[in-house]
Design a protein that fits this description.
Elements (H helix, E strand, L loop, with lengths): L2 E5 L2 E2 L8 E2 L1 E5 L2 E6 L10 E4 L4 E4 L1 E6 L2 H7 L3 H4 L3 E6 L25 H8 L5 H11 L4 E4 L1 E2 H9 L8 H16 L4 E5 L10 H13 L3 E5 L7 H15 L2 E4 L13 H13 L4 E5 L4 E5 L14 H5 L2 H12 L8 H5 L4 E3 L15 H8 L3 H12 L4 E5 L3 H8 L4 E3 L21 H16 L5 H8 L1 H6 L16 E4 L20 E6 L2 E5 L2 E2 L31
Parallel strand pairs: 1-6, 2-7, 8-9, 9-10, 11-12, 12-13, 13-14, 14-15, 15-19
Antiparallel strand pairs: 1-4, 2-3, 4-5, 7-20, 16-18, 17-18, 20-21, 21-22, 22-23
Helix pairs in contact: 5-6, 6-7, 7-8, 13-14, 16-17
Amino acid sequence: MNRVWITGGTVIDGSGAPGRPADVLIEDDRIARIAAPGGPVPDGAEVVDAAGMVVAPGFIDVMSHSVSTLLADGLSVGKVTQGVSTEIMGEGWTPAPAVPGQPHGFPVHGLPGGDEAWVGRSRGWTRFGDWLAAQEAVGAAVNFGSFIGGATVREYARGYAEGESTPAQLAEMRRVVREAMEDGAFGLATALIYPPGSYAGTDELVALCQEVAAFGGIYITHMRSEGEAILDGLEEALEITARSGARLHVYHLKAAGRPAWPKMPQVIDRVNAERAAGRDIHADLYLYTAGGTGLSSVTPPWASEGNRLVERLRDPVERARIRAAILDPDGTWEPLGTLAGPEGIMPVGLKHPDHRAYRGLSLAQIAAQRGQDWIDAALDLLEAEEQRVGSLYHLMSEDNIELQLRQPWVMLGSDAAGSDPTLLTEDELGGHPRSYGNFTRLLAVYVRERGVLSLEEAVHRMTGLPAAHFRLEGRGLLAEGHHADVVIFDPVNVRDHATYAHAEQLSGGVRDLWVNGVRVLAGGTHTRALLGRRLYGPGAVGRPAPTAPATDAAPVG
């Protein structure tokens, strides 16, 4: 039996209760005892001195994009070094089920069998669960699970086509969602500003969420608007869940663009009113005023219909039509270029050799260097790059972030992957600091420096709250019999180091992390252990039976 005795620390158990001095005994994959400090060391236990440190449950990232990085090596270095022990994926797109008749590979390097073999294998993922089973075969340092992506569901039945789905197509989508819920999906995840997910209407989403509700699942959504129409976006999400019976979660709660900033208090009031009436509604956020998405988001969704954006940009007539739509948005889509302005957009995902000189520059600065209007510069970059070009959009208000964070139903999601910065190529450098600092930033900036939350409440938002909301059995709390996902961090020195200019900097102050009783981080160094577990939504059929916790604590001494 593997035994670890963590002694001398302050236990903050994830419930929101005050921290207290206590010693923690881990036996194999469970927390066997939480005892008054100073007792004898259990027989055969490894002693870990946590004096001056906080001992807490491992953190839960409810909005992860670690699909490719976890499949690559399972390590999730950027998350583990923040104390994250669990990642939940799925916003908009998932790699399974593969779309019939389409190559569905994606860039993952260093996998068993070689890159080409893995890309070919991904085409055979006929069910949602096939992907997660493949991840189990690779292994992971963190626990992992996912929603099924709404865009993937729609693409499965009708590709990138706009318009209303036929009854047969809708039936096919419902089947895909139902099978995903049986395979352990937590629910349906939409991103309603991005094609082809944006082509789905409210009635279609209600029908799909009826399948989700039958399994006790969640409708989790990047709403159709986070800008000036944010209240309309919220009303649609409320309608979808009210009509379907699914629970509601709002991805990365924010008011994007200065005109929308005053609307955040109204959004919060509306949610609080619905919660007071008994609705199960939660949200997550990341702690940065810049969002991150593709440069293609400056274009209207119809420009990507049929997945033909680059083709349209090369057609002078279509390009002129796209340019006119960007110049004068008609109110039917979220014009991120207008909301952020060219000074507030930084393309960080440029890969073309001719564009390397633009790294670190705003779109306004790039346009000036090229002697172009910002719209023409953006369209030229998209055409030449032939990809969406990851970009930062400075859109949010710091005052709103603090207001949102004070709401007891708001938790943390990184909206990012857990990369290892030492393995990034020159073309892969440049990203969003939330990948490496979202969770430690909460502890450093919003607890220690600004006092927006107490330390206990901050830990609760990253542990007990998401575990209860996602129904993660035996996780999110330091309690006897629970899974031993345990983090030790220095409350005085824990700190995010990633910045917009230098995003690939790991956090500091998180010293140790155990996932299912296995030490994944030791003295701030990743141990490369890969014993994280696949997590299942509440309606999963045929899921492995959880290991029963010990009924009697082992004797101490």
